[in-house]
Amino acid sequence: MWAIIKKEFKSTFFSPIGYIVVAMFLIIFSTLFYIFSINSRSIDLSSIYYGTALYGLPIITAVITMKSFSEERSKDTEQLLFMSPRSTLSIVMGKFLAIVSVIVVTLIISFMYYLVLLQCGVPDIRLILVTMLGFLLLSMAYISFGLLASSITESQVVSAIITLIFLMSPLFASYGNGIFSYLSLINLFTKFSLGVISAKEVVGLISFSVMCISLVVIGFKKRLK
């Protein structure tokens, strides 16, 4: 699995995708940082992570996951990939963890904003770390769905559109009400942004990730029989 993680992580940054994702994250985060921290003279970073998760993370996820399996199918290398000695689960998890690693890199970079705020006051480091944990768990859930979308089509564009529509659909409905409230993973992130680690939210996000990854593995096993 480590070999796959290493290969996928390197390929992400050997192509423009990795740099585009990091740049998109920093542009969105920096914009919100200016609005909520600099302009409002606040030392609270949790609202900035929440805003980035709400408006930026769906787009970032769609961009970074769209080629995961779609590219393999379009290049007819899918059969070759899954005929290797590695198990289907290890291949899927390798791609999943490689993309999660990119998000970890962006979170580490975002910590520089905490250092900037230290010049203005003493931000609540516990609140920031809990919010970052929630952001990571939410990212994992989003990425797992992006991989699922990528596994069912050979078109990277279609994969990105499916991912984007699903992850942003709650924004086009009555927020917090109706069927979309049950599909809104961002609702499971709210408590983290308040500095609360809730078992319900943690289990919910991890369970969603496990479900999507399981569906990807099952789908490949059935198709490649």
Description:
The chain has one domain. By secondary structure, it is mainly α. The mean pLDDT is about 85. Helix 1 (about 1-15) crosses helix 6 (about 90-110), helix 6 (about 90-110) crosses helix 12 (about 200-225) and helix 8 (about 125-150) packs parallel to helix 12 (about 200-225). It has helices at about 1-15, 15-40, 45-65, 70-75, 80, 90-110, 110-115, 125-150, 155-170, 180-185, 190-195, 200-225.
Topology:
Blueprint (H helix, E strand, L loop, with lengths): L1 H13 L1 H23 L7 H20 L4 H5 L3 H5 L5 H23 L1 H6 L7 H27 L4 H13 L11 H4 L6 H4 L5 H25 L2
Helix pairs in contact: 1-6, 2-3, 2-6, 3-8, 3-9, 6-8, 6-12, 8-9, 8-12
Global geometry: elongated
Return the average pLDDT rounded to an integer.
Answer: 87
Strand content: under 5%
Count of runs of 4 or more consecutive helical residues: 12
Structural class label: mainly alpha
Total domains: 1
Q: What's the helix-strand series?
A: HHHHHHHHHHHH
In the predicted model, the low-confidence regions spanning at least 5 consecutive residues are none
Give me the Rg, rounded.
Answer: 18 Å
The major pleated sheet works out as:
none
- Helicity level, as a percent range? over 70%
Count all strands and give the number: 0
- Alpha carbon gap, first and last residue: 22 Å
From the structure above, extract its key features.
75% helix, 225 residues, 12 helices, mainly alpha, elongated, 0% strand
Provide a short characterization of the protein structure.
With 225 residues, the chain is an all-alpha fold.
